[in-house]
Every structure is written in structure tokens, then in C-alpha cells.
Amino acid sequence: MIPRPLGRALAQCWPGPSLILVTDPSRLPDPLAAMRRLAPGDGVLLRHYDAPDRARLAVAVARLARRLRLVLLVAGDWRLAARLKARGLHLPEGLARHGVLSPALGWRRRSGGLLSVACHSPAALGRAKRLKADAALLSPAFPTSSHVGAVVIGSVRFGVWARRAGLPVIALGGIDRRTARRLPPTAACGFAAIGALA
């Protein structure tokens, strides 16, 4: 299991879960078994963007998350987040970049939900801060089979970018028991993963 982040001691921590299982249609087509291994208070980020059975899976994930007392975040679809009574919304970097945000931000204001934003650069972290996101999922921290060949951030740059971000940062991409310990101790207030939590 991935260790709990030391960054939770920072004043700049987000009110969401410090450990997040990220769903993925190819690497984790059925996330329900992995969810059962999480502890109460951990999170589930429902991606499965283009899966034909996303609505059915979303209902099953939401039902299990409630039963296990997990924090549910829905990626890219505020309407689905609202229907499921999810705790928050996660915006892919592309949505945050192109500003298709009014309805999503309106839902967040009305519901008091959490907002996380995917970031892959300092510029994206700046956009997330301007959106008043609760946290940024900064990736890929390390090499990952989700994005083979992608330029990785690495421990040193991750620490520098996280310190300068001006908002809480959650590490994603190649995070496991070993790599999580390679990040500067207070750089990440949370860890998100697929394989290491599957």
C-alpha cells in the first residue's frame, strides 16, 4: 500500500482524501474490487470518460463509495457528479485550459463540492490556482504505464513546482510505495494511483 503523505501536516492541505484510487477503463475496467481495499475517508476518482457503460458503472461506484465511506470525485462531468451526489468534481487540464467551466463552477458553488484540476506544468498549476481549485493533481510524477513515453516531472521538479503552486498538490503518475517516498516529504498533500491501489 502507498504510505500516507507527510504533507498532510502542511497548513496548505486540501479538505479531500490524501489517498485516491483513479479509475481507468483499460488498466482498471472494474474498480469495485480495488475500492473494497481502501480505508474509510480515502477517495475514488471516477474517470472512465468514454466508456459506453459509464453511467451504469458510476451508479455502482457511487453506491459502494457511500457504503464504504469513501470520497467520490467525478472527472469531467458536473451533471454526473450532481446526479451521484459526489463530493467533488475533477477537471481534466484541457477543460480548465479552454474555459468550458461556468456550469461546472456554478455546481461547485451551489453544492459546496471539492474541485481538483489535472496539471502537467507550472502554467497549468497557475490556471488551477486562478480557478480557486481545492487541489491540483500534478502528473506524471514518475514513469507510468498510463502514459508511456510521457516526459516525467521527477522528484526535484515536483518539489519545486509544488512549493510554488500556491495550492495543495496531489501526486499522480507512477506512484507506488517506493516512488511516493522519493518525493520531498512535504511536497504532496496526497497521492493518487491506479496500479498501486488496484
Automatic annotation (TrEMBL):
InterPro entries: Aldolase_TIM, ThiamineP_synth_sf, ThiamineP_synth_TenI
Name listed for the protein in its UniProt record: Thiamine phosphate synthase
Residue ranges occupied by any Thiamine phosphate synthase/TenI domain in the UniProt entry: 41-196
Position of the signal peptide: none
Pfam families given in the database record: TMP-TENI
Biological process terms in GO annotation: thiamine biosynthetic process
